[in-house]
Write a structure and sequence with these properties.
Strand content: 25-35%
Radius of gyration: 24 Å
Number of helices: 13
Bound molecules: flavin-adenine dinucleotide
Shape: globular
Helix content: 25-40%
Number of strands: 23
């Protein structure tokens, strides 16, 4: 007689593993099925963690070459050991994925290795790497199968010369010429890594701006800064094909609006045009589950696909971010346990881990204008922040947007060193429905970069004091 679980989760990424851990904490009998061989999903294996390991190391490499001398630090010749840089990245990934296995044991979660398929309500078949099958019986199924890189028609990703985010994190040598398709978050992070290590990077973007979801003023400042760092941009441009010769890639591009094309030479092409939900072979149809035309699983506002079937993370609507997936997973575990699980998608922060970092939460100016919402704006440049000046890291600014009548904060948009950490302050304030004055009157330690947030908040009412 098969054992009956309270919850069986398909997928061990941030959505799935957090759901599993929370369900275990709440005393539910839970299993998590993962086919990759390691836990942590895209995020830990081929996403957030390895990309940040390479961003950190390549930033220090670039700083040692370009900034240390001006700080009075002599290094001698700075050389790249790419093999070691990749090894320290793998160490970070290994440590963190094993950490989740430990957390599973601690919270009595059964880790089932293999590919999960929903057979019917309450029944999930698991096929392991040797083809052996077993069926898990459960009261609830949680789909947390995540996403995979989106592809361009006619462009084949071989993960050797034409690579997705996965191949881009494991190149064997620094390409001389790198063409990056897509000026979104993942593309700009990968472009930054390889540019710092010595590649000549050309970013081709279909739209006429970079970072489409970011506030336009922030995106403009980012573009200016990245250009100074050596990235070149072909905006309003589409890739129509890639010809592979023995030694080179010939990337055919033309204006998005039509017109004469040109060919860009490249050693490596990174395709970073976004991600799409992954539901292959899942058996969603066996429980009446549906997807929209982009493959996103349809759910109610409480993550329900069908009776006893739930879905979380990148495979459902909402921002494709690890912390959103984590919050979804936690909420579903709580709902299954009879608690009130809820995620506020309006306050999921976004961070781009370039140098400087870019971070935002809530609505941007374009969205507020489009919605006809009257707002006030406070803006403070890091050039006027004493800590930023001390550190010689003065690029960027903080912008706070607040509702005209009530002063309630509607959004915060930042570009500058360390803003990926600073955005959390505004998220907490916004969760509590804070006014800009609440931040403006809160003591911030001096000298810190976060004083720029306070000064920007002061600016909403026109009393910025340090500028
Ligand atoms: C290069 C890169 C950098 C990124 N950086 C960031 C970042 O800095 N911050 C951030 O918030 N987000 C980042 N992301 C996005 C983040 O990785 C995803 O939003 C997050 O991983 C989504 O979590 P998930 O659990 O929904 O899905 P995933 O992490 O995709 O996990 C799904 C898991 O399910 C498994 N699976 C699928 N189908 C089955 C099946 N039938 N049976 C068993 N297992 C199955 C897959 O093997 C996978 O391990 C990045 C992504 C990339 C690609």
């Amino acid at each position: 007689m098969a054992e009956t679980y309270d919850v069986v989760i398909i997928g061990g990424g941030p959505g799935g593993y957090n759901c599993a851990i929370r369900a275990g904490q709440l005393g539910l009998k839970v299993a998590c099925i993962e086919m990759r061989g390691t836990l942590g999903g895209t995020c830990l294996n081929v996403g957030c963690i390895p990309s940040k390991a390479l961003l950190h190391a390549s930033h220090l490499f670039s700083a040692a070459q370009n900034e240390f001398a001006s700080l009075g630090i002599k290094t001698g010749k700075v050389e790249l050991d790419l093999t070691q840089m990749m090894a320290q990245k793998s160490d970070a990934v290994d440590g963190l994925t094993k950490g989740i296995e430990f957390l599973f044991k601690k919270n009595k979660v059964d880790y089932v290795k293999g590919r999960g398929k929903i057979l019917s309500k309450g029944k999930v078949e698991v096929t392991d790497a040797d083809g052996k099958k077993q069926v898990l019986e459960t009261k609830n199924i949680v789909i947390a199968t995540g996403s995979e890189p989106a592809t361009l028609p006619g462009i084949e990703i071989d993960e050797e010369r034409v690579v997705s985010n996965t191949g881009a994190l494991s190149l064997k040598a620094v390409p001389k010429k790198l063409v990056l398709i897509g000026a979104g978050v993942i593309g700009l992070e990968m472009g930054s890594v390889w540019a710092r290590l010595g590649s000549e990077v050309t970013v081709v973007e279909y739209l006429d701006r970079i970072l489409p979801p970011a506030d336009a003023e922030v995106a403009k400042e980012a573009e200016r800064t990245f250009k100074k760092q050596g990235l070149s941009f072909k905006l309003g441009t589409k890739v129509t094909g890639i010809e592979k010769t023995k030694t080179k890639l010939k990337v055919a591009v033309e204006p998005a609006k039509g017109g004469a094309g040109e060919t860009l030479d490249a050693d490596i092409v990174i395709v970073a045009i976004g991600r799409k939900p992954y539901t292959e072979g899942l058996g969603l149809e066996n429980v009446g589950g549906k997807t929209d035309k982009r493959g996103v699983i349809e759910v109610t506002d409480h993550f329900k696909v069908a009776d006893g079937v739930w879905a979380v993370g990148d495979c459902i609507p909402g921002p494709m971010l690890a912390h959103k997936a984590e919050d979804d997973g936690t909420a579903v575990a709580e709902l299954i346990a009879g608690k009130a699980g809820h995620v506020n998608y309006d306050l999921v922060p976004s961070v781009v881990y370039t140098n400087p970092e870019i971070a935002w939460v809530g609505k941007n100016e374009e969205e507020l204008k489009a919605a006809g919402i009257e707002y006030k704006k406070g803006k403070f440049p890091f050039m006027a922040n004493s800590r930023a000046r001390t550190n010689h890291e003065t690029v960027g600014f903080v912008k706070i947007l607040a509702e005209k009548g009530t002063d309630r904060i509607l959004g915060a948009h930042m570009i500058g060193v360390g803003v990926g950490e600073m955005i959390a302050e505004v998220c907490v304030a916004m969760e509590f429905g804070a006014a800009s004055e609440d931040i403006a009157r809160t003591s911030h330690a001096h000298p810190t970069l976060s004083e720029a947030v306070r000064q920007a908040a002061m600016g909403v009412e026109g009393w910025t004091m340090q500028m």
